[in-house]
Amino acid sequence: MRHTFTGLLAVAGLVLAPAGPAHAAAPDAGLSAAAVDAYLEEAVESTGLPGLSVVVTHGETVVHAAGYGHGSDGEPITEHTPMRIASMSKAFTAMAVMTLVDDGRISLDEPVAAQLPEFRMADERTGRITVRQLLNQTSGLSDTTVDVDAAQSTTSLSDYVATLADGELAAEPGSRWAYCNVNYDLAARVVEVASGQRFADYLADDVFAPLGMTDSAVSDRLVHPAEGYNSLYGAWVSRPELPAFLNGNGAGGVITTAADMGKWLVSQSGEGTQLVTPESLRSMHTAPDGQNYAMGWGEQTVDGVEMITHGGNLFTYTASAAVVPDTGYGFAVMANSAALHDDTFDVLRGLLALSDGRSPEIPGGDRQLVELVLGLLALGGVGLAVLGVVRARRWAVRRAGSPRWRIGLRLVPALLPVLVLAGYPDLVSFLMNGRRVTWAQLTYFAAPLTITVVVAAAAGVATVVTRLVRLAPVA
């Protein structure tokens, strides 16, 4: 789900299996810190990532936690470097909800509207959405039927909920799965109302603090990671993050470290400090019948290994995390970069192989290959534009006297890139199953693709305009 073009297509990792404190014995090969470190050193070298922060756990033990590379501020990445984890935040939001469920202050199966009176939408079906459906992403909410741009421009969760008033549902609540950040921002607001605290404060007091995650927080106001990077035809460019996830939201606002993620993975494996009952933890890891997404986690089988996993993609940071219930291993890989190909899952897959006693494939080359091809296409577009302009007079002479409709047909191929550019965000949104994508977002991780499309469109326009100008006096 998260390989080439994952920035466009990734939703969340997908995995599901009941979690519990009991684990099967680790493979005979086991895992040592030295083996993990050697693999990661090679992976960072082969992928060319500017910075990587990684933790591997097994049961209650942190096998290895370290950082590699550097941040945009020039500081070396360590296990204590703040990293944005984007949609991996959803598991933390689900945990906050479940602590309140265990306390009897939130009910999973009562309507959200009954527990959050301010939640109103134009669609009467909204009144049937439950908290469980928010967490399972089966509420019927969709990027295509709510004003996502207005919602993301708000500075509080209460204001966020208010922007949904004119929205509608794309499906009957509980009838189908659709990934939508609105679900988890609503869940975060439910936490605020039930607890009487700001979401960021509740997460700090009742999730991070009990686990000893002292360097974790929601939003930039509390923790300040360095700017991340985008890959531009193979070169890393430092850029400020887009503001959509920089406030205290529940869909993607957590900033944490590898050291802190180690404590989180141990707890998610059913070991160490537990914030909820075993039944509640199991619910967080168990998808509804016919689905494969639970509560901030999904189920996925990779190389024959069943695990629960989730990915995170912002616009200058990417991340992947997984827990293997059968062996008790946990992994988190966080990068201060984003590109058309997300290497964090590839690195995690290598760690999974190591934990299973197999030789890992060294990731690398996919990003460079994709962007090399796009770069060559962009250069080709420039070359065709120059050729089209230079040969425009010859083209006009040959077409002189032809019917206008035939001349128009001859010009259509050159204008096809213009049509693609005109519908570019909508086309990408369609490829992402309706996820809302904006022009601003497409200038970040997708910059090489965007530039190539723009160059091709400009080449087409230049060719057509020059041909028409040359055709006029000839005609």
UniProtKB/TrEMBL annotation:
Pfam families associated with the record: Beta-lactamase
InterPro entries attached to this UniProt entry: AmpC-like, Beta-lactam-related, Beta-lactam/transpept-like
Keyword field: Membrane, Signal, Transmembrane, Transmembrane helix
Sequence intervals crossing the membrane: 369-390, 411-432, 444-469
Residue stretches making up the Beta-lactamase-related domain: 36-344
Family annotation (Gene3D superfamilies): DD-peptidase/beta-lactamase superfamily
Domain of life: Bacteria
Signal sequence residues: 1-24
Record flagged with keyword tRNA-binding: no
PANTHER family found in the cross-reference section: BETA-LACTAMASE-RELATED DOMAIN-CONTAINING PROTEIN, D-ALANYL-D-ALANINE-CARBOXYPEPTIDASE/ENDOPEPTIDASE AMPH
The protein's name in its UniProt record: Penicillin-binding protein
Organism encoding this protein: Actinophytocola xanthii
